[in-house]
Specification:
The complex is a heterodimer. Chain A is built from 13 helices and no strands. Chain A is mainly α. Chain A has one domain: MetI-like fold (Orthogonal Bundle), CATH 1.10.3720. In chain A, helix 5 packs antiparallel against helix 6 and helix 5 packs across helix 8. Chain B is an all-alpha fold. Chain B has one domain: MetI-like fold (Orthogonal Bundle). Chain B contains 13 helices and three strands, in the order αααβββαααααααααα. Chain B is flat and about 80 Å long. The chains are: A mainly alpha, B mainly alpha. At the A-B interface, helix 1, helix 6, helix 7, helix 10 and helix 11 of A face helix 5, helix 6, helix 11 and helix 13 of B. Chain B: Its main location: membrane. Chain B: It holds the Pfam family OppC_N. Chain B: It is a multi-pass membrane protein.
Chain lengths: 335, 314
């Protein structure tokens, strides 16, 4: 088992290395970071040359890549075009995104798997038809539409309904109240006020993410569950006279969970870079914001770091999916 | 379903040459069965009609509508507002002097146009990679599949956005090509799987034994058998491309003026989503309609091509 894991990790390293090359090629082709300076009239040539030198643009691309990689493996991702350390900014945004994504993912997995399993067990029942149709509709709706609906229509109604129309409880913008806990507002600095503030901001974006992801899991676990329910060993278990509950929970569900777990793990890796739209709609300062800003302002180091972090996430969760599958499925040979 | 069933219950039916049935069974070809299954899938058929109407709206609409998308309308605007509420003259109202109905028609047209280019290009790349990989196996397969894995590591939207930033002039075609460049991996994997299993079948062995060349086996023998998954995936790719394009344009990283798209109109209209909803919610609704109809059609096609996992029995 350990040698299997080590081998998979070793395979991942060249993949990450190649991904960093692709990312570098993309970043080089994003544009010229000092385009503004160049097109501005009356800027002395020396100023442009100095700026070029500062950003390392005067060196050939390969040399730039090698020096970036050399620093990156030591954890130094350089500075943004505004001379701020890149890693500090990315780490902060990653924290914001993780808070949002982790919780939403857990909730949607729980709801999705539960609905999927129940509709598979009660196949062709009213519950099954309702759940399948509902999941299909939610699965097909664009994030843009779901998020906008929650933000512009539902939030206002809900706030009015709970009698907080003027001082909305459900916030639609940002991941937290600005200057929430300062010296002038010491009563906000406790654990409970800050959690409440976070939840009041996180409710809508989490609901958006849950609505669009749980449907996929429901569909998937329904299919996986149906497959195992028709398997021979489930019939054997029934023939042995086991209770229906035991057949479903111990024999069918466990096997179905195996494939579901892999899909969830793969999905989660993609979500770290992939909640861009939800974050933008609700104006969170997460990884999505970093991406949009670094591309708009052509900030090579920031964009590279973004690509690096998301690539690591995707590769890491691919790895975890492989390991989960190997651990859970005895049919997988490890050697 | 295709072959008439003889159930030997009647002793007369057993006698050779004198097969008599109470009812006649019409023979159906494989394609006839598929089309029949598809046309019996109600949501898919309704979606086909709605999607057809959307296409008419997007492509024929601008030719007949009395206002052009770039026609500045000099109408008195009330107070400090830059918009006018909908009327019979302007079903979606006027915003900044432009007829929103004409804008949405043009946006839908661009969105569908981009999606079609993305689909044609990405499906071509995907099928080519998948076919080569699955047919030749071995070293070729390893190289191509590692490359596919690599492309999957780079987040799709981010890669396209990074390249799109540098495009000047007409942007929509470039955006479509970039989206295709980073969107072929899923279909490549599906087609590879199909090829891997089909290349071991007897009919391929027969073709090989009579000396058919690799291109001939790929194009004449295996590819026609993978048409089902190709059509299903291509259909779903159209929906995916519309949404991806809308997402990028909404983030301000997609098409730039003078081009437009549903995502672009939504981006422009989002600041007025609560005060003047027409420029925001109509394109959002179009987006939902496209996505829903495409998914229903894809679902119907999947059921039609793959009766083993069907929910609708025909």
């Amino acid at each position: 088992m350990i040698s299997f894991i080590i081998r998979r990790v070793l395979v991942s390293i060249p993949l990450l290395f190649l991904a960093s090359i692709v990312a570098f090629i993309l970043v080089v082709n994003t544009g010229d970071p000092i385009e503004d300076l160049r097109t501005k009239p009356n800027v002395p040539k020396a100023t442009i040359a100095l700026r070029e030198h500062e950003l390392g643009l005067d060196k050939p691309v390969v040399e730039r890549y090698v020096s970036w990689l050399g620093k990156a493996v030591h954890g130094d991702f350089g500075k943004t075009i505004k001379n701020q350390p890149v890693w500090a900014q990315v780490r902060r945004s990653l924290g914001v995104t993780l808070r949002l994504v982790l919780f939403a993912e857990i909730v949607s997995v729980l709801i999705g798997v539960m609905i999927g399993v129940v509709s598979a067990v009660k196949q062709y029942s009213w519950f099954d038809y309702g759940a399948t149709t509902g999941a299909f509709l939610l699965y097909s709706l664009p994030v843009l539409a779901v998020g906008s609906f929650l933000k512009f229509i539902l939030a206002i109604r809900l706030n009015r309904w709970i009698g907080r129309g003027d001082d909305p409880l459900i916030k639609t913008i940002g991941e937290g109240t600005a200057n929430f806990c300062t010296a002038s507002k010491p009563y906000n600095c406790g654990f409970i006020p800050s959690v409440t503030d976070f939840l009041s901001h996180a409710f809508l974006p989490m609901l958006t993410l849950v609505l669009i992801t749980f449907a996929g899991y429901a569909r998937f676990s329904r299919a996986a569950m149906l497959e195992t329910l028709n398997a021979d060993y489930v019939r054997t278990a029934r023939a042995k006279g086991l209770s229906e509950r035991r057949v479903i929970m111990k024999h069918a569900f466990r096997t179905a969970l195996m494939t579901v777990a892999t899909v969830i793990s793969l999905d989660f890796g993609a979500l770290i870079g992939g909640a861009i739209l939800t974050e933008t709609i609700f104006e969170w300062h997460g990884m999505g914001r970093v991406l949009v800003e670094s591309i708009n302002k052509i900030d090579p180091n920031l964009l590279l770091c973004w690509f690096f972090v998301t690539a690591v996430a995707v590769i890491a969760f691919n790895l975890i999916a492989d390991i989960i599958y190997a651990v859970l499925d005895p049919r997988i040979r490890l050697d | 379903m295709t072959a008439p069933r003889s159930d030997g219950a009647e002793p007369e039916a057993q006698q050779p040459g004198s097969v008599e049935r109470e009812f006649t069974v019409q023979q159906r070809s494989q394609w006839k069965t598929i089309i029949r299954r598809f046309t019996h899938h109600k949501p898919a058929m309704i979606s086909m009609v709605v999607f057809f109407l959307l296409m008419v709206f997007a492509f024929a609409g601008p030719l007949f509508w009395k206002y052009k998308y770039d026609q500045v309308l000099k109408k008195p605007l009330g107070g400090n507002k830059d918009w006018i509420r909908p009327s019979w003259e302007h079903p979606f109202g006027i915003s900044k002097g432009y007829d929103v109905f004409a804008q949405v028609m043009r946006g839908t047209q661009y969105s569908i146009r981009i999606a079609l280019v993305v689909t044609v290009v990405s499906v071509s790349i995907g099928v080519a990679v998948g076919a080569i990989s699955g047919y030749f196996r071995g070293f070729t397969d390893s190289v191509l599949m590692r490359f596919t894995d690599l492309m999957l590591v780079i987040p799709y939207l981010a890669a396209v956005a990074a390249l799109q930033r540098n495009v000047k002039g007409s942007t929509w075609l470039w955006l479509a090509l970039f989206l295709a460049m980073f969107g072929w991996m899923g279909i490549a994997r599906v087609i590879r799987g199909e090829f891997l299993s089909l290349r071991e079948k007897e009919f391929v062995e027969a073709a090989r034994s009579v000396g058919a060349s690799a291109p001939r086996i790929i194009f004449k023998h295996i590819l026609p058998n993978t048409l089902g998954p190709i059509i299903v995936n291509a259909t779903l790719a159209v929906g995916g491309a519309v949404l991806a394009e809308a997402a990028l344009s909404f983030l301000g990283l997609g098409v730039k003026p003078p081009d437009t798209s549903l995502g672009k109109i939504i981006e422009v209209g989002k600041s007025k989503a609560t005060t003047y909803p027409n420029e925001f919610w109509w394109p959002v609704l179009m987006l939902c309609l496209i996505s829903l109809t495409i998914n229903f059609i894809g679902d119907g096609l999947r059921d039609a091509f793959d009766p083993k996992q069907n929910r609708v029995r025909a």
